[in-house]
Amino acid sequence: xxxxYAFARSLxxxxxxxxxxxxxxxxxxxxxxxxxxxxxxxxFIYAGSMQYVAIDLMTGGASILSAALMTxxxxxxxxxxxxxxxxxxxxxxxxxxxxxxxxxDETYSLVCSGSVPEGVDEKRYYLLxxxxxxxxxxxxxxxxxxxxxxxxxxxxxxxxxxxxxxVVVFMEQWRSTANHISALIGVGSSLICLLAFGPDRFLIPxxxxxxxxxxxxxxxxxxxxxxxx
Length: 229
Prior knowledge:
The chain is mainly alpha-helical. It contains twelve helices and no strands.
């Protein structure tokens, strides 16, 4: 039952990751990096948007320091994700390092979108969901690299596919929950910080604001969640 539940929950991510991973593989191939690079990057880096950025860093001859700073800026939001997962991932034992590594935006969204049904092993569900999602990304990346090596593509605008997936996951989470306070906090905080700091600097301030608000309102949100169960 746990495997079936994890697979069913992962289907929206599968649809997105196969396409997005394919786009990454195609783009990587057009820059002169073959299937081996696609496989290694998607297996050991596994950071969707950062992998797209990494292509430009690799082809542009960026220094290690520049690459490290860019990675921190792009993936800094995961620091906040980690804090909120301390309790959920408590007691996962040897699974914890991989669960931390595989905590993408989409996996985080699914793990946090409600409790698992009766009969499902919660900790095993977290592991299976994380592994399935990464498998979709790896398969998509490798497939894209193979396709890119055989067919020529215009890759302009392909990076927007990541934004499209975030929107789909947000809509899915909105539809599956009765309490939308957290979602509204996220959208509102992001818009405020976008206006205040601009499109190049709003990400980290918005994550800080969202975290502060969610921590401050955790009792209210907890009561709302209980009322809708």
